[in-house]
Amino acid sequence: HYCSELYTMGERRRIYVGNLPRDIRERELDDLFYKFGRITDISIKGAFAFVSFEDPRDAEDAVYDRDGYDFAGGRLRAVCTLVSSLAAPVRMVFRPERTGGALVA
């Protein structure tokens, strides 16, 4: 119900992770997510990041367990994203002033 309906053959298994401290390091994200499965990529973009997994079920488990997780004085936001290896990514826009901190496509 989380990620599985977004993923089909040939697509990457990537999640958005928000509400991160600005000084987050890749190692810290790896420590937060390695237990869910093989991580293929971590891309930090300031106060948010994208974490890619080899298996979509691992991404789903990570979202289920880490969304709302207390970390560094805040609560993480973890949601599934859709990025095809064959096409351009689905554009996700973060608009906290309009959506209360939610990602919208």
Characterization of this structure:
The protein is an alpha+beta fold. It is 22% helix and 33% strand. It has 3 helices and 8 strands. The protein has helices spanning 26-33, 56-66, 96-99, and strands at 11-18, 39-44, 49-53, 70-71, 74-75, 77-84, 93-94, 103-104. The strands form 3 sheets. It has a 4-stranded antiparallel β-sheet, with helices on one face. Strand 2 (39-44) and strand 3 form a beta hairpin. The chain starts with 10 loop residues before the first strand and ends with a strand. Mean pLDDT is 79; it is low at 84-91.
A few lines on this structure:
With 105 residues, this protein is of the alpha+beta class.
Terminal residue distance? 18 Å
Helix content: 10-25%
Strand content: 25-35%
User: Taking all residues together, what is the mean pLDDT?
Assistant: 79
Shape: globular
Please trace the helix and strand order, writing H or E for each element: EHEEHEEEEHE
Uncertain parts: 84-91
Strands in their spatial order, largest beta sheet: 2-3-1-6
Count, helices: 3
Count the strands?
8
Rg of Cα set:
13 Å
- Biggest β-sheet description: 4 strands, antiparallel
Class from helix and strand fractions = alpha+beta
